[in-house]
Design a protein that fits this description.
By secondary structure, the protein is of the alpha/beta class. The chain is built from ten helices and nine strands. The strands form two sheets. A six-stranded parallel sheet has the order 1-4-3-2-5-6, sandwiched between helices. Strands 7-8-9 form a three-stranded antiparallel sheet. The longest helix is centred in the C-terminal third of the chain and has 18 residues. Bound molecules: adenosine monophosphate (AMP). Adenosine monophosphate binds next to helix 2 and strand 5.
Length: 292
């Protein structure tokens, strides 16, 4: 497996490849990332992984400095998945004092966009740079970051970027907690309690399927509020729990295929993010690894 650090090296490598499937990451790999790499390999293209803790997507008060970094371990894990090339540039190398950014209005507004001003601009800017540098045929992302999927899909559509995006279902711990690099911040009691967010989302998804059509929106809005309240009573600080259209990130007003229940809430100092599909009938408690 090649590890490349400069734009020049990555361009030279790309020129020798017939096509590439790209998995953009910030490192601190867990089973979710590794699953994405294995899914990327299914395309038959060489797999490139970018490993870059992107300063542009962190607000000043966020965890950029303490974000987990474990490059040597990450490289070994990527190699074990059959990854062909890891692009791990320094911030200077990739950003080189750029002042240009990509703003995808619409799907970046509200939810994570409201909680983390500038976050999606930082994500879109770096992902578009990676697309230009590596020119992948395909790029693979996790549904775990639902709003990111919507933003990138819209960016690719609006800017006619010649890449096909593939979204992979969230890999979970045995109790249902979505795997996340930030789970290491949870204390032991918090880790035990953390699954409650996923449980609330799953209950809302169940209601999406069972609520009577005539009063669907009203029933869902009431249940979103009740779920938030229930988390609050158990010591969480909920930000939002909402049934949304995953293309637009607008609140869903009528039942339709493809809706997802998204939620974000703080437990202690850790902000947890998760979402589940509304129309999947047998969401098991175990790890879920469905592609879509
Ligand atoms: P990150 O390193 O957090 O930027 O994540 C890199 C990619 O992995 C993104 O496309 C995430 O959505 C995806 N990802 C993160 N957690 C999971 C998970 N538990 N299951 C599947 N994909 C994930």
């Amino acid at each position: 497996m090649l590890v490349l650090r400069t734009l020049q090296d990555v361009r030279a490598w790309r020129a020798t490849q017939p096509g590439v499937s790209l998995v953009p990451t910030m490192g601190a790999f867990h089973e979710g990332h590794l699953h994405l790499m294995r899914e990327a390999a299914i395309s038959g293209h060489p797999v490139a992984v970018s490993l870059f803790v992107n300063p542009l997507q962190f607000a000043p008060h966020e965890d950029l400095d303490r974000y987990p970094r474990q490059e040597a371990q990450d490289l070994a894990l990527a190699e074990a998945q059959g990854v062909n090339m890891v692009f791990a540039p320094s911030a200077n190398e990739l950003l080189h004092n750029g002042v240009t950014s990509v703003l995808v209005r619409g799907p970046s507004e509200g939810w994570e966009g409201a909680a983390r001003p500038g976050h999606f601009e930082g994500v879109a800017t770096i992902v578009l740079k990676l697309f230009h540098l590596i020119q992948p045929q395909e790029a693979v992302f996790g549904w775990k970051d639902l709003q990111q999927c919507a933003v990138l899909r819209r960016m690719v559509e609006d800017l006619d970027v010649p890449v096909s995006l593939r979204f992979i279902e969230t890999v979970r711990e045995a109790d249902g907690l979505a795997k996340s690099s930030r789970n290491v911040y949870l204390s032991e009691p918090e880790r035990y309690q953390a699954v409650e967010l996923n449980q609330e989302l799953r209950q809302l998804a169940q209601l999406c399927r069972s609520a009577p059509q005539e009063v669907w929106a009203e029933a869902i809005r009431n249940a979103e509020r009740a779920s938030s309240e229930s988390l609050r009573q158990r010591g969480w600080i909920p930000d939002y729990l909402a049934v949304v259209n995953p293309l637009t990130m607008q609140l869903a007003e009528t039942p339709q295929p493809g809706l997802r229940v998204a939620g974000a809430a703080k437990l202690g100092n850790v902000r947890l993010l998760d979402n589940v599909p509304c129309d999947e009938r047998n969401l098991s408690d175990g790890p879920s690894q469905h592609s879509s």
